[in-house]
Structures are given as structure tokens and as C-alpha cells.
Amino acid sequence: MVSEQILKSRTALRKELREARRALSAVQQEEAACGIAEQLHQLPLLNHARNIAGYLVNDGEVDLGPYIASQWQSTPSKQFALPVLHPVCKGHLLFLFYSSHTALVKNKYKINEPALSCQNVLPTSQCDVILMPLVGFDIKGNRLGMGGGYYDRTLAFTRTKRHSHDQLSPNNPKLVGIAHDIQEVKSLPIAPWDVPLDAIVTPTRTLIFNNT
């Protein structure tokens, strides 16, 4: 169980950090997007990744657009996917393949996502790397999301396999949090459902964690 005090602390921190990233200027956001692209180009986890799940920018998040566009041009063998609200399993995500020709629709949060098509679904377990937007993080790799729990529910299987050390099960997707530098806090109040990250990338640095 998580105490009411911790929940209130997470809610207040989430509000503060969302306001801070939304306050960044267009120039600052553009610089952050370029910085993230440079950091991701140097991230070993992505070197041999073929299926990469990302996200479309919303609510002041760091824009992955420049990185994805550069990979489409330089490494056509890499395939990208985007999260879609699961039409059946409430509170969960699906990942659908994404290209420059993908038809997009707005979900109930007014966020663009690929139009649902069963043939374009990429099973979560077949994602090599998932680039996840963060609201907040600390140097220990703890993460704070938007509060809906979509990623935590969808990726709960990775926590089970990390703890079971099951060598016969498929490899977990590598989980990489993406954030602005201003989203770092000294210490983040954590919850038991938080999914551990393998790395956190900001426009100026990359933090790698030994969670496997």
C-alpha cells in the first residue's frame, strides 16, 4: 500500500513539473529535441534495436520527431511504433507501427495516435526499446508518469520477469525514459507499481541503470 502522504506528494510534484515543462519556450523545446536526438544516436541500447516504440509530443514533453525522422532517413531497417489506448483492456496500451504515411486520429486525451488496425499491431514483448515520456525522475532511475498508469499496467510483465530471472522467456523491452533536464528532482516518492527503467535520457546526458 502507498500512503496518502506519498500520493499527495506525487500529485503535487506532477503538477509542478508539468507546469515547468509547458513553460519552456519554442526555442528551448527545439533545442531539447535536437539534444535528445544526439543523445539517442549515441545510446548503445538503440544500436541493434529494430523495433522501437516512441511517442508523439504532448503537454510540453520532449519531441522525438527529429530523432525518428533522422532514423527513417539513415536507418530504414529500424521500425517505429506509437502507443494507442487499448480498445478492450481499459488502462492499457497497444503499440502500432508508425511511418510518415500513418493515418493519425485523436484519442480521448486529444493526443494523436495511429488509427487502430490489427495488422499494424506490434506486440509489446516484441519491442526492442520503448522510449517513454516522463514527468519527473531522480538520479536513482525512479520515474513519475502522468498519473494514468498506462505504461505501468502495460509493462507490468517486465517487472515479473525481472524478478523471476526466467531465462526461457522472451527478452524484456529495454525501457528508456525521455525528459527535460528541469524534470529532475533530488528524490522521487516511489510507488510499488512503478516500472524500473534501463536508462533515462535528457538533452544533455544519459543515465544507465542495472535493472536487469
Short description:
This protein is of the alpha/beta class. It has helices at residues 4-22, 26-41, 65-74, 150-154, 156-164; strands spanning 51-53, 79-85, 93-98, 104-106, 112-114, 129-133, 136-137, 143-144, 174-178, 199-201, 206-208.
Describe the structure.
The protein has 212 residues and is α/β, with parallel strands linked by helices. The protein has a single domain, classed as 3-Layer(aba) Sandwich (Rossmann fold). It is 28% helix and 20% strand. The strands form three sheets. A seven-stranded mixed beta sheet has the order 3-2-1-6-9-10-11. Strands 4-5 form a two-stranded antiparallel ribbon.
SSE layout and pairing:
Blueprint: H1 4-22, H2 26-41, E1 51-53, H3 65-74, E2 79-85, E3 93-98, E4 104-106, E5 112-114, E6 129-133, E7 136-137, E8 143-144, H4 150-154, H5 156-164, E9 174-178, E10 199-201, E11 206-208
C-alpha termini separation: 25 Å
Radius of gyration: 16 Å
Secondary-structure element series:
HHEHEEEEEEEHHEEE
Give the full name of the CATH homologous superfamily. NagB/RpiA/CoA transferase-like
Helix count equals: 5
Uncertain spans: 163-169
Query: Any idea what the CATH architecture is?
Result: 3-Layer(aba) Sandwich
Relative helix content: 25-40%
Shape: globular
Largest sheet: 7 strands, mixed
